[in-house]
Design goal:
Elements (H helix, E strand, L loop, with lengths): L1 H18 L14 E4 L5 E6 L5 E8 L13 H8 L12 H7 L3 E6 L4 E8 L4 H12 L5 H20 L6 H9 L13 H6 L2 H11 L5 E7 L3 H12 L23 E7 L6 E8 L5 H14 L5 H9 L3 E10 L4 E9 L5 H18 L3 H17 L4 H15 L4 H10 L3 H11 L6 E7 L4
Parallel strand pairs: 2-6, 7-11
Antiparallel strand pairs: 1-2, 3-5, 3-6, 4-5, 8-10, 8-11, 9-10
Helix pairs in contact: 1-13, 2-5, 4-9, 10-13, 10-16, 11-12, 12-16
């Protein structure tokens, strides 16, 4: 409770300083860590945090959708599921039982650039997730039983999240058209058809290509003793052989779209028309990416954003107005969304969105908006480092993407270096009405 109160007080102090107009960075105790490499290439990061008697273990593999063969999309996401099958050390359907019996939790996620597995367990159970991760890193059973089981699971996930949801395929269509047959033109969920026709040998090849110690970062964060944990890491991971350098997709990142793309989608799941507008953006770590993140917080983050205030509150032409900025390793995507209110028109929503974008391009943002954006960036940075698992994921990300785990302490300076002029500049650079994709979803007409 004391730590929670201290954190809230810290966040409140930040808000007061920023809203008062001070351009300052809060004094945050740096996160200390130790890192080293095993002879097999596995990068290991250790962080001691005794605020709670638990440990987080993260294994971050450098493989995502962009590494796939365009004729075999969805493999990275498929392996997120397949890695919960049997290995030489344990039987299928046993991982959840092991972790739950130990009082822990486990999960995983896949993106365009990464696949990440994470555990949280009581500190006295630290050996368990290390044993599991080392076992499935090189002795996963890529066999008919596991593959066929997970084919069904992935297909059902796709149906639930994409095929049977209102506006379900907007994400796929947006990336397909913004990145036109180049890197990032397909999304992590992949094609159900590709997964259906893939062979066991193809899955084994993918596993042996990417699931190697020299293509991974291991982070252990929490109530640990470094010397002891190093011994466990050596015991479980040190015996794994170094793999060949992974062979990645040779699909290039194509230039930004040269023209406007529009498409109208008849959607029998949607009850109201929807407008989805996308632009290419900057890649992760670039100055423009920090500026775009702050700009999008002003334009479309929450009910105080420009889009929500204009479309929902003032004009009442939309029931929802939102959007965001997704920064990837080699590019980025900006998106704006408006769900049309009953009795209102798609054209009204498009016009209002364009007018708000043009205002930012022409006039930039106000002082109050700029202070708000910095406030959001700083509080978000602090909140993202408040427990063992979040710190472990951050350390893994910074090392994987930048080769500098130390950015866990310094990246906030990149946000704070952004100026009002930077926000106006990136609006002018990226929000080009002639180089974007507009998807209009219309409810299917019933006869």
């Amino acid at each position: 409770m004391i730590k929670a109160i201290a954190f809230l007080q810290s966040a409140l102090c930040i808000s007061i300083m920023l809203l008062s107009g001070f351009n300052t960075i809060a004094q945050i105790n740096p996160i200390k860590f130790e890192e080293y490499d095993l002879p097999n290439g596995l990068h290991v990061i250790l962080h001691k945090d005794q605020s709670a008697p638990n440990v987080a273990v993260v294994v971050h593999y450098r493989v995502g959708a962009r590494d796939e063969d365009p004729a075999r999309t969805g493999f990275a996401h498929f392996f997120e599921h397949l890695m919960f099958e049997a290995t030489d050390s344990y039987q299928r359907a046993s991982l959840d039982k092991y972790i739950q019996s130990a009082g822990g939790e486990l999960n995983a996620y896949t993106s365009f650039d990464e696949t990440v597995y994470h555990f949280e367990v009581p500190s006295n159970e630290i050996r368990l997730p290390l044993w599991i991760e080392a076992s499935r890193m090189r002795t996963l059973h890529v066999d008919t039983i596991g593959v066929e089981t997970q084919r069904g699971v992935v297909k059902e996930e796709r149906k639930g999240r994409y095929d049977n949801s209102p506006y379900g395929n907007w994400f796929e269509l947006m990336f397909k058209n913004l990145f036109s047959s180049g890197m990032y033109s397909w999304t992590p969920i992949g094609s159900a058809q590709h997964i259906d026709i893939a062979t066991i040998d193809e899955f084994k090849q993918f596993y042996n290509n990417f699931y190697q110690p020299n293509n991974a970062t291991l982070v252990i964060s929490g109530d640990i003793e470094a010397k002891q944990v190093k011994g466990f890491v050596q015991e479980y991971f040190g015996k794994l052989p170094k793999g060949n350098q992974p062979v990645r997709s040779n699909v290039a990142l194509k230039d930004s779209p040269a023209k406007l793309y529009t498409e109208t989608v008849e959607d029998n799941k949607a009850q109201l028309p929807g407008v989805f507008i996308g632009y290419r953006g900057a890649k992760i770590g670039e100055k423009d990416a920090y500026a775009l993140s702050m700009l999008m917080d002003i334009v479309n983050a929450g009910e105080s954003s420009r889009l929500y205030q204009r479309l929902v509150d003032k004009d009442q032409i939309a029931v929802q107005a939102s959007g965001g900025f997704q920064s990837l390793q080699n590019a980025g995507m900006i998106y704006l969304v408006g769900i049309v209110a009953p009795g209102k028109s798609v054209d009204d929503v498009k016009k209002a969105v364009d007018e708000e974008v043009e205002k930012v391009i022409k006039d930039g943002v106000t002082d109050a908006e700029f202070i708000k954006a910095k406030n959001i960036a700083e509080v978000r940075f602090i909140e993202g480092k408040k427990n063992a698992l979040e710190k472990a994921r951050s350390l893994a990300k910074y090392h994987t993407y930048f080769g500098k785990a130390s950015m866990i302490n310094t990246e906030i300076k990149d946000f704070m270096s952004i100026t009002k002029d930077d926000l106006k500049r990136v609006a002018q650079k990226y929000l080009n009405q002639n180089q974007r994709a507009i998807l209009t979803y219309m409810p299917k007409q019933t006869k």
